[in-house]
Amino acid sequence: MAAFEIREELQIREDVLAFGFRGGRLKDGEAFQLISGELLASVQAAENGMHPSLVILDMRQVEFMSSLFTGKLTTLNNVLSKSKWTLVLFGLPRELQDIISLTRLDRPITLASDENELRLLVARTTARPYCATDEPSIEFSAEELGEMIATGITLDDVIRDVEQLRGGSPCP
């Protein structure tokens, strides 16, 4: 019997939530029943203590996706988007990625095929600010992000340093 679980190893940053499945391979109906209830409940509970950013859904154990399931993923994405969360499907097998691309669902739903791609995606996604600021947002080039990842510097570290240089500090 498959079960839904938090994937702490994929929660790369504090504003990122990651979920997946434990147990055997899943068909899409089983997977959607698990995510539609438990995922949304977990995200809503987390909203009380954090600023929304990414919800990563580890799909490595899902082996089949019907058109009904892709429609349900779109609905899930819409619900999450209303609360400012971005849905990321992680680890889809190549055949399922092709289905998502053919149906153009890769436009509203973000895909990450492996952990390197996922880490780059998280690095490119600016952490939601903890407070309002009049300062312009900080943008980094792909080269700068690659250097940060290679040296083990997190985007949060860089933002904190820039805030200090600006004379401000992150919100308490």
Description:
By secondary structure, the chain is of the alpha/beta class. It has helices at 28-47, 67-82, 94-102, 115-124, 142-151, 155-165, and strands at 3-6, 16-22, 54-58, 86-90, 110-112. A five-stranded mixed sheet has the order 1-2-3-4-5, sandwiched between helices. α1 (28-47) packs parallel to α2 and α4 packs across α5. The radius of gyration is 17 Å and the shape is globular.
* Structure class: alpha/beta
Label the overall shape: globular
* Beta-strand residue percentage: 5-15%
Work out the radius of gyration: 17 Å
Highest CATH level, the class of the largest domain: Alpha Beta
Query: What's the story with the biggest beta sheet?
Result: 5 strands, mixed
Helix content: 40-55%
Domains, number: 2
Going across the major beta sheet, what is the strand order?
1-2-3-4-5
Which short descriptors sum up this protein?
single chain; 172 residues; alpha/beta; Transcription Regulator spoIIAA; 2 domains; five-stranded mixed β-sheet; 14% strand
Q: What is this structure's SSE topology?
A:
Layout lengths: L2 E4 L9 E7 L5 H20 L6 E5 L8 H16 L3 E5 L3 H9 L7 E3 L2 H10 L17 H10 L3 H11 L7
Parallel strand pairs: 2-3, 3-4, 4-5
Antiparallel strand pairs: 1-2
Helix pairs in contact: 1-2, 4-5
What would a concise description of this structure say?
The chain has 172 residues and is of the alpha/beta class. It has helices at residues 28-47, 67-82, 94-102, 115-124, 142-151, 155-165, and strands spanning 3-6, 16-22, 54-58, 86-90, 110-112.
